[in-house]
Specification:
The structure is a homodimer. Chain A has 19 helices and 16 strands. By secondary structure, chain A is an alpha/beta fold. The first copy, chain A, has 3 domains: 283 residues, Alpha-Beta Barrel (TIM Barrel); 73 residues, no CATH class; 145 residues, Double Stranded RNA Binding Domain, CATH 3.30.160. The longest helix of chain A has 22 residues. The two termini of chain A are 30 Å apart. The interface between A and B is large, with 116 and 117 residues.
Chain lengths: 555, 555
């Protein structure tokens, strides 16, 4: 029935459950638009981080989510997390098994479901337009239905805190009904996000006392207190916390799961991730931002670029001697780094570390390290970002080490023409002129856009000499405009992900011209592919990344 | 001596003091660079909002701040706020009146000063390199010096919470010394930002009990809890809260004063602003962002553009009937507004609501609404996203209502050529052929990229006939590749933000060809600009937003 079997450490030990809803509630954020492929990629990162539960979407309500669960069944191999499908209790006056929305939820074939239910008397009357008794029956029936089908059931009690204020007895009755029907956890939701921590704590205490139910918490950030509200609920005894990576979500966003997890582990002595995963927090926060195409927030607690940045000057030496006096934690614990703002990012240590990761020991070669640090600094100042483009970094590294086996091709020129004709048809055509293996080649190709045309032309030019290029496929193409303040004159960063069917790698290009930036990333992508093929680069960035996907424990 | 006389309501009534440090601690944020003129402008906004105290900077330490206080004396006429200059306690083994830094602080001639002092034993030893007794003497002497000069004195006890953890008795002794010497409030600072609310509350309670001192609180957001920590301290009895507008500041920023004030007034029944000023919160938050040249954060609690935005669909009709069920406060209280997002799940209700927002009443016209809903659905299925492109939605709406006053121009064709020449130079050139006011125009322009070239060519073609286009500027350009699974053949969504100096609007284009998508957004941007100019579109999305900035009361 499902693609997972091993329970997460948290669920196995009965500890606090970490329940991620980036793919469902986070996806509701303004400007968020995740494709099915994006959702699968994010799910893999969440599993890699070690969350207990991944809520994947609302099958039946959104066609894209139905598709996600179908593909998840075939393609997702989760190591840590349990996949959860979200849905609502049955409609009023309809048997659960006859409700198409309930069927769609069942058909998602996940080991667990999360049912949203009303617990606020006015919402029952005004939004649901039914009786209080019928709402309780809806909760009971739907929970029992999924339990009978062998599913684990969580219940999201929507607008719970407002409902408790309106009619505490009824809100509590909803919780009791769900638990009696077999719900594993009843999640109290501050749906409108208007609560403050002490109110959350008081209500959680009272509900726990009156029902004995295992409770969860789901907060929104409308008072700027979503993280504190979540932690207050943990202090008050909840067993599950729901949140969203980087705090994406409707209005002001959901509780930021990255911050919550770091606070739990580092401030509240509550381990919630498998051993060793906390240091992946920064990497995974950035990877999810990248996939969601959201600019990473520099001042994000724990993982932001500025989170441990110090304006140097007066205190620089003091900070160097006693960093613990000026930082609330050691940034390495969450995969971050102290940054002194006099200099740019890249330091010797990180270049050495990264090189070792790629199989090059530079510890004895101060001069080469300095040269690479300088070059990386210069490129990053122009908008490059090598943390997202390991393959381009490896090419740079090999070039500096004179380790590139051969130049596969030299560019003479390229030209792209995009034309919208009077009949409305748009055609794109590219010509490249290259020299490879001593031969000058001119090739022209059409494409459905300028970059696609360029890709085809380059492929056509080289494929006779390098037939292995036939294996390569561009699987993702991302564009980000840096420094938006200059409109279309801003600098463009392009990331291209390429696959040879075995593994994938990412290359980068930066230029004020989007086509030029795309060319750089494209040329790097082909170079890296040829290099892999030539030398069977076992320990390359791409290979390490792919291995990590398959087996997070192996590292 | 000073430019102020009337005390703020808070100081007059003995209520909770609101102390803003945007100009001092906020200015330490990465990427913040405030000129003296910026600081004066922000100070006027803060006074207008009605904060009790404005900390203007550190005279002596920063030349710009010395200059600020000089000009403030001549130019600032504060009605509500007291201006405060920030400085440190005297150096070890130096008499206060001989310490140049103390003199500079005195010379700022403000009615109040805030002195930062050590209260952590290790900071005294390792950073100050003096004895615990001498540090106490430094506190006592410096406070007494400024009291003798007739100044009100606040003391910022730096690293207080860490210091309390290291040696509570000494930390408390620092507080006691300051109060005995005449400090009006001793502000407990979570300088490294590592605290959680209950810890803050416990420490404030203990210090208050042991010293009886009037206390203040100063928090940073390194655990994502700065707002909650501040409120917890208020609950525990502090008399002063320090914060920064929009939460700017070093690392993860300071406590966001906008959020704190809204929570105090609306959630904790603690009035802290003069009557009627709370509704200015949104306007002032945006004005400060504008002056500080920081992009406004759409998901900022209370005042963000998305803070009361609802994805329509299922719940749109329910929200219309009972907005209080779906919003934690009435957004008008803080000068904000409910926004319905026309999205994927767009239904009739949300289109009706959105249209009314734009000044069109469609409630009687079922057929038109159906037609618009169908068209939006069809476009959104292709990758359009109108929630982020109000102007494109308005153009669509007007087209369906036959309300477009005129077609400003008809496109015949365009062509873009991007070429990388053998010498490495990349050139972009665009040609557009349009018909406008009965005239066929062909124009060619170069640009630093294909879209920039297209923008220039279109502008060149139309500017003679529509000179008002000279006012328009493209201020932001965003590209998102949808469904990354097809590599460079994927669909591209382009968002363009345009300004006419008064207001800004966003348009959208979607196509598998990035140039074509950009063209669509560009053409819409120009159309909307011309439409605004032509009809003085008073009730358009942009105009409503601009009006809101100028006069929220007028709505």
């Amino acid at each position: 029935m499902t693609s997972q079997s091993a329970p997460s450490p948290a669920t196995a030990t009965g500890g606090l459950q970490i329940y991620d809803t980036t793919l469902r509630d986070g996806a509701q954020g303004e400007g968020m638009a995740l494709s099915v492929a994006d959702k699968l990629a994010i799910a893999r990162h969440l599993d890699d981080l070690g969350v207990g539960f991944i809520e994947g979407g609302w099958p039946g309500a959104l066609p894209k989510d139905t598709e996600f669960f179908r593909r998840a069944r075939d393609e997702l191999r989760l190591r840590n997390a349990v996949l959860v499908a979200f849905g609502a209790t049955r409609k009023p006056e309809v048997r659960a098994e006859r409700d198409p929305q309930v069927r769609a939820l069942l058909d998602a074939e996940t080991p667990a479901v999360c049912l949203v239910a009303k617990s606020h008397v006015r919402h029952v009357h005004e939004a649901l337009r039914t009786t209080l008794a019928e709402n309780l029956a809806m909760i009971r029936d739907t929970v029992e239905f999924f339990r009978a089908e062998g599913r684990r059931v969580f219940l999201d009690a929507e607008h719970f805190f407002d409902g408790y204020a309106a009619d505490a007895d009824y809100a509590v009755e909803c919780v009791r009904t769900a638990v009696e029907a077999g719900a594993e956890v009843v999640v109290l939701c501050d749906t409108n996000g208007g609560m403050l921590p002490w109110r959350i704590a008081d209500v959680v205490h009272d509900v726990a006392e009156r029902t004995g139910a295992p409770l969860g918490i789901h907060c929104h950030d409308d008072t700027g207190c979503a993280v504190a509200n979540t932690l207050a609920a943990v202090q008050a005894g909840v067993r599950q916390v729901q949140g969203v990576v980087n705090g994406y979500g409707e209005r002001c966003g959901n509780a930021n799961l990255i911050t919550v997890v770091a606070n739990l582990e580092l401030k509240m002595a509550t381990p919630v991730l498998p051993a060793g995963r906390l240091a992946e927090l920064g990497r995974i926060s950035h990877a999810v931002a990248e996939i969601a195409n959201q600019p990473p927030r520099a001042n994000q607690p724990y993982v932001g670029l500025s989170a441990f940045a110090h304006k140097a000057g007066l205190h620089a030496s003091a900070i160097k001697v006693s960093p613990d006096l000026y930082q609330h934690i050691d940034p390495a614990l969450v995969g971050n780094d102290m940054r002194m703002l006099v200099s740019e990012m890249a330091g010797r240590a990180s270049v050495e570390l990264k090189s070792r990761e790629l199989g090059f020991d530079l510890s004895g070669d101060r001069e080469t390290v300095s040269r690479i640090v300088e070059r990386v600094k210069e490129l990053e100042a122009r908008g490059f970002m090598f943390e997202a483009a390991d393959a381009s970094f490896e090419l740079l590294l090999r070039e500096e080490l004179d380790d590139v086996p051969a130049r596969f091709f030299d560019l003479e020129s390229w030209r792209v023409i995009v034309e919208r004709r009077p009949d409305g048809e748009v055609v794109s055509e590219a010509t490249v002129k290259v020299v490879a293996k001593g031969e000058r080649i001119v090739a022209t190709a059409e494409g459905n856009g300028p970059v696609n045309a360029l890709d085809r032309a380059l492929r056509q030019a080289l494929e006779r000499l390098y037939p292995q290029l036939g294996e390569l496929e561009l699987v993702d193409y991302k564009v980000r405009i840096l420094d938006g303040s200059h409109g279309t004159g801003a600098v463009t960063r392009v990331l291209i992900e390429t696959s040879d069917g075995e593994t994938e790698w990412t290359t980068i290009g930066v230029d004020e011209n989007v086509i030029s930036a795309s060319w750089q990333a494209l040329a790097d992508a082909y170079c890296y592919g040829l290099l892999r093929d030539l030398s069977g680069v076992e320990r390359s960035a791409g290979a390490v990344q792919a291995a990590a996907m398959d087996s997070p424990e192996a590292r």
